[in-house]
Predict the 3D structure of the following.
Amino acid sequence: MRRLIDRRHFLKGAGAVVALGAAGCRMPAAGPVGSRPALQLPPLRVSIDRITRVTVCTRPFRAAGPRTDVERIGTRTVVHNYGHGGSGWSLSWGAAHVATASALGTGERQIGVIGCGAMGLTTAIVLQRAGARVTIYAKELPPDVRSSWATGLYTPDSRIAMEEHATPAFKQQWAEMARRSYETFQTFLGVAGTPVEYIDQYAVSDEPGPRRRGEAEGKPRFAELQREMTPDLVMTPVDHEPGSHPFGQRYVRRNSQLMFNLASYQRLLMQDFESAGGAIEIAEFRSPADFARVREKTLVNCTGYGARALLADNSLVPVRGQITRLVAQSDATYGLRYQDTSFVPRRDGLLLQVTGENDYYGYDDDTTVVDRAEAEHAVTTIASLFPAPATSA
Ligand SMILES: Cc1cc2nc3c(=O)[nH]c(=O)nc-3n(C[C@H](O)[C@H](O)[C@H](O)COP(=O)(O)OP(=O)(O)OC[C@H]3O[C@@H](n4cnc5c(N)ncnc54)[C@H](O)[C@@H]3O)c2cc1C
């Protein structure tokens, strides 16, 4: 029922998109207005026939935030590192340091990491750098893990916890994770294969004023932490006046953001882990009793949404997200957000996603079936910003 309501909502929006697209054709051509020079951006080649893949996955959200405690299960010490919602890649290095301190605090130097997604890979590498011998146990490896189907932006407070659970201690730990991750991402800039880069992102709006993360009436608010806890990592946005950019009379606000090219980034992390002597074993754990099967006495549990079934952890809520991928375009180096859809110019493909009006879009929805109508809606929404050039008679 929830998905049907969502779909009806955005299809209604799709009608508006067509109307806006038509209106866009009547808008005056871009030209310099005021003192700011006109913004030039290469048009995107975004159309339904250029869709190459649609993927769906569930963000592992916990109202109380990620699980980082240490638990004794049978004969093993288990350090938990899961439940990072829509921020797993963004917080990965910081979360890895928290888990590493707990794991090495047991005195063991041979550590098993369960899971090979964003959290497992980064935790394994940080453990190695701290002197541990590490084996990763996982039932899936990149590129077949959920982490591969993320957008790939630095979004450290995206669906990370509910505001009511964001205590001062939680905020402090979050800020340390966000900051350490941000610093680590700087070390990947300029590396061959461009695993990490900065992009300009343009929020395009039909109305003046900054876009705010919408609130869902009568529901708990998601914690918003970036401006409060790491204001120095948030860049000052720049406004482009209507008519001074390629999007006609719309309002445009630019910001810069870190983007992870997940295909090359994951490959690099796998190489780093293996070249430092890391071992990988394919294994599925069906219950906590299976932890006793591995050699290591200390384990770090990085199973993401898989922890819900493995540990019967019903505090993990699935937040469905669908990514529509189009043929890559080498001169597309900027991102967009327009109406309910976002666009990210990854090197391995143009990525589009319907993100809805607020963070509840896809909340408590574990369906991983592709929604073709949603994919086409994302494409037509972004395409409407680029009216087709007039053809000569
Ligand atoms: C559409 C979408 C967009 C997103 N965009 C972003 C973004 O831009 N930036 C960002 O920071 N985050 C983003 N996220 C969130 C991010 O993808 C997740 O937070 C992150 O992938 C979680 O990583 P993980 O390693 O915990 O889980 P996973 O990637 O799911 O990895 C879990 C690992 O554990 C293994 N495993 C699980 N259960 C078992 C078991 N029982 N036995 C053995 N192995 C097991 C799996 O095989 C896998 O190897 C997005 C998520 C979605 C859905």
User: Anything to note?
Assistant: The chain has eight helices and 14 strands. Residues 2-26 form the longest helix (25 residues). Residues 1-36 have pLDDT under 50 and may be disordered.
